[in-house]
Amino acid sequence: MAMDLTSNNGETGKLAVTDKRIADYAMVLDLLGSLTELTSEKVVIESIIGLFRSLCAPSVVIYIPVIDDLPVEAIVFPVTLDAKPLVKDIIGNFHDDYSMKESGSGFRLRIKYGEKLLCFIEVEGIAFPEYNYHYLNLSLHIVNVLALSIHNARTYESFRREINERKQLEIELKEKTIQMEELNRSLEQKVRKEIDARRHKDQLLIQQSKMAAMGEMIGAIAHQWKQPLNSLSLLILDVKDAYEFGELDAGYLYTFVERSMKEISFMAKTVDDFRNFFKPSREKETFDLIEITSEVFSMLSSQFNTNDITYRITCRVHNRTFFSYNDVIPCEATQITTYKNQLAHVILNIINNAKDAIIDRRQKGLLGALEKGVIWVDCDKKDNVLRLEIGDNGGGVADGVKDRIFESYFTTKTEDKGTGIGLYMSKIIVEDKLGGKIHLRNVDNGSVFTLELSV
Ligand SMILES: Nc1ncnc2c1ncn2[C@@H]1O[C@H](COP(=O)(O)OP(=O)(O)OP(=O)(O)O)[C@@H](O)[C@H]1O
Ligand SMILES: [Mg+2]
After folding, report:
1. Is the per-residue pLDDT at 7 higher than 60?
2. Helices then strands (H, E): number in the chain?
3. Cβ–Cβ < 8 Å for 397, 413
């Protein structure tokens, strides 16, 4: 790319010119030596501008970097110069590798590395325009070294950027990992806390439901005992009267003992029934679903009598209906193997609610004067699933309340009548312990609870 300086001025052999050339080459070589070792383009640019300033003392140097084929912001000397028109002219009109300025006191260079354009350089207003051609020639000799220096610096910088980006990524990754670990830890803590809270709540619920069950048991026993206690007191008064009237003979006494013992053994049986019933089964047992339902009715029978409530149990498999627990015929079709007392407790909860609903409806005057409270149970079996429906004419569950009845502590009753645990516990027992389903639907004048249990 270098040109022959002698062809331009035609004067050769002048010592002064030769000396200047040698001096210039020596200075340029000196500056070039360190240029290729620079690793920052900014420093390379400053050095190149410095080189041209030292070499030809120009009034203006413009350096326009080209990155990915696009010119970017120019670096100019002096910094106060408004180089915009010149930059525009260079980018728009300069398409060769070099050119002399028309002013005769400067030149332009286009620096490429292979085919890749790296920058434009313009040098203007050199102190000795007569050496313009010489400076251009010299510049063309060193243009490849300049290109190499710029290319090197850019490569270094891109490596540095990559390394920095990678480091940054590593730092971010580390921070993210720490954040994730912290999140995990706090999540674990939250979950543990939540589990503890639930366990505590469940324990409390179990405790309360035991208390409620005990209360129910005592209440039910008291009800069941009312009748025999009454009979016993009449018998005792009778004995007293018989003695006073001289009628107390051996026959009378035997009859008295026999009738008293009958009442007492009924009372003892009631206590046993309830005690067995409220003891949760540890093992699964095989039993008849209709029979266990009738046992629940038997335990509540005196409360039903007092409150004018009748009941009936229908076996859909045989289409038989029983109107008293005493009449129930055990049947194999409705047998199931599961935790007996837990299931009995669920049935008791549902029947107790039905009884409460009927009493409440009657108290509100919504049950006809001669209308009886009715609780009915339907037992059916299809595809190895036993369905037990328990319905009542207690008015049903209000629409706004329907979605909440299985929640813990949800009750519409006064504090002395309900805690809101019955159905919550029933749902847990049915779904978790017995692997079945429980749901509710309203019918004409009451509600129907359905239990579905696989056999
Ligand atoms: N057969 C029913 N008819 C009308 N409402 C019912 C019936 N069964 C349940 N409910 C409604 O569902 C609510 C929740 O019943 P649940 O058995 O869980 O609690 P409770 O009976 O109020 O109190 P607990 O059973 O703990 O003594 C009741 O308060 C009642 O409003
Ligand atoms: Mg209840």
Report:
1. no
2. 10, 14
3. no
Q: 């049915």: which residue's tokens? A: 430
Find the helix or strand (DSSP H, E) in which 440 lies: strand 437-443
Of the chain, the end-to-end C-alpha distance in Å amounts to 99
What CATH topology corresponds to 5-162?
A: Beta-Lactamase (3.30.450)
Checking if the pLDDT of 2 tops 70, the result is no
Q: How far does residue 422's CA lie from ligand 2's centre (Å)? A: 4
Q: What number is the average pLDDT over the span 310-333? A: 95
Averaged confidence pLDDT in the chain? 90
* CA 285 to centroid of ligand 1, rounded, Å: 28
Residue owning the nearest CA to atom 9 of ligand 1: 353
> Which residue from 29, 28, 34 is spatially nearest to 53, judged by alpha carbons?
28
Residue 454 above 90 pLDDT?
Answer: yes
Domain boundaries, the chain: 5-162, 280-454
- CA 187, 189, 194, 198 torsion: positive or negative? positive
Identify the three-state secondary structure at position 191: helix
280-454: CATH class: alpha beta
